[in-house]
């Protein structure tokens, strides 16, 4: 079995055709590179007979099998129920759709809690859905000094009228991993549902939706080595209570009720391949769920070691501020320079073949709360394929930034 000490990053890198282009990729939080197994699954699906889901022709059965397999894969990845795995174009689209369906039962006096740590995709849909129903939005604050979103900050804005708490599993800007089980327990005590944005977290840690206390858990395969689409995982019984707008002839079954139009079968096959790839990092023993847990633990340990290397080196650089300070965090670092815009550093790194973008990455509330306005900083993210030579190149590039 792969363990933290045997994690074979060279073997992992050999699976990623994109790395042959030569760049050091620290841009994974925006979207990871893809192993050849995923690209192959997408191409193979498009190259085989495929029709709309059904049971009569082989082409129909293939489409059906692809969907069933992808639901099972995502359920294994996050410890959910395959019957509650909803696919859509992106997490943003699914969250908009679900916010409208959930808000159908809200009215004046009802309240929804959003946070200053979250990506806007887990903020604005709720703010706008609340506005449409005359409900009230309450903001759980981020502590700019520590980068933490504490249970106290969430407790402070909960009332017996709270209907939903929308919170992130991990910040895509500064990596903060809030104590999600504590936050969702507070939501549940108040009688509210918890909608957890797992887009950033799922790429970096073994997730168990039940342990997190997430009533609805959103993630995006393109962040965890898969293709570009989104998914939400919930208990089928909860989904049964929601009634999104849908076409008259389309099925009202759950989870299909939420999947408007024809699913992208090739991307679903790629998603299954991405999950299988992560599971293979956990060795060959046990079922896929236990291999996933082991594989993601190995990824986490690997990425964490590289994160500490970067953090230690950045601490020595004059005029650089590291904004990723939370006690528990993903390997995602946000840096700013006292004397120059982060975008300038990002361009200088890009010229050396080191990809680390600058911005606020749609975590606009967090960026503003940290005092970084809408500009944010330079984001450095580790991925399963990041190695020490990438980190060497990054650090060389950062040390080459001239003192102003
Ligand atoms: C934490 C987080 N939430 C939500 C999103 C939005 O995901 P999608 O692109 O699938 O809509 C992102 C994308 O960067 C993200 O990082």
From TrEMBL:
Coiled coil: none annotated. Residues 26-394 form the Aminotransferase class V domain. Transmembrane segments: none annotated. PANTHER family: CYSTEINE DESULFURASE (PTHR43586), PYRIDOXAL PHOSPHATE (PLP)-DEPENDENT ASPARTATE AMINOTRANSFERASE SUPERFAMILY (PTHR43586:SF21). This is Cysteine desulfurase family protein, VC1184 subfamily.
């Amino acid at each position: 079995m792969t363990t933290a000490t045997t994690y074979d990053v060279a073997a992992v890198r050999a699976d990623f055709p994109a790395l042959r282009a030569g760049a050091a990729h620290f841009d994974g939080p925006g979207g990871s590179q893809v192993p050849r197994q995923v690209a192959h699954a997408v191409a193979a699906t498009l190259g085989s007979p495929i029709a709309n889901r059904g049971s009569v022709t082989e082409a129909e059965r293939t489409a059906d099998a692809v969907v069933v397999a992808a639901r099972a894969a995502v359920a294994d990845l996050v410890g959910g129920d395959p019957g509650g795995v909803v696919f859509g174009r992106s997490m943003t689209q699914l969250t908009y759709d679900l916010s409208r369906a959930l808000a159908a039962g809200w009215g004046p006096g009802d309240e929804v809690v959003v946070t200053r740590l979250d990506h806007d995709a887990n903020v604005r849909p709720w703010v706008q859905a609340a506005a449409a129903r005359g409900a009230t939005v309450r903001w759980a604050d981020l502590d700019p000094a520590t980068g933490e979103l504490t249970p106290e900050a969430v407790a402070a804005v909960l009332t017996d009228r709270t209907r939903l708490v929308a919170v992130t599993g991990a910040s895509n800007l500064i990596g903060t991993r809030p104590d999600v089980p504590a936050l969702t327990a507070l939501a549940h005590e108040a009688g509210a549902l918890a909608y957890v944005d797992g887009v950033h977290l799922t790429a970096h840690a073994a997730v168990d939706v039940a342990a997190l206390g997430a009533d609805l858990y959103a993630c995006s395969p393109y962040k965890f080595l898969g293709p570009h689409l989104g998914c939400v995982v919930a208990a089928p019984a909860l989904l049964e209570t929601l009634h999104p707008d849908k076409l008259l002839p389309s099925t009202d079954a759950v989870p299909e009720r939420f999947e408007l139009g024809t699913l992208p079968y090739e991307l679903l096959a790629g998603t299954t391949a991405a999950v299988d790839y992560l599971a293979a990092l956990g060795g060959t023993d046990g079922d896929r769920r236990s291999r996933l847990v082991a594989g993601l633990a190995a990824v986490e340990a690997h990425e964490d070691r590289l994160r500490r290397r970067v953090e230690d080196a950045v601490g020595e650089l004059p005029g650089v501020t590291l904004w990723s300070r939370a006690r528990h965090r993903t390997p995602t670092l946000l840096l700013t320079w006292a004397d120059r815009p982060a975008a300038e550093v990002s361009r200088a790194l890009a010229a050396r073949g080191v990809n680390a973008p600058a911005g606020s990455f749609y975590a606009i509330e967090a960026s503003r709360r940290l005092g970084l306005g809408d500009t944010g900083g330079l984001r450095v993210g580790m991925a399963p394929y990041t190695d020490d030579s990438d980190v060497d190149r990054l650090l060389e590039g950062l040390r080459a930034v001239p003192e102003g």
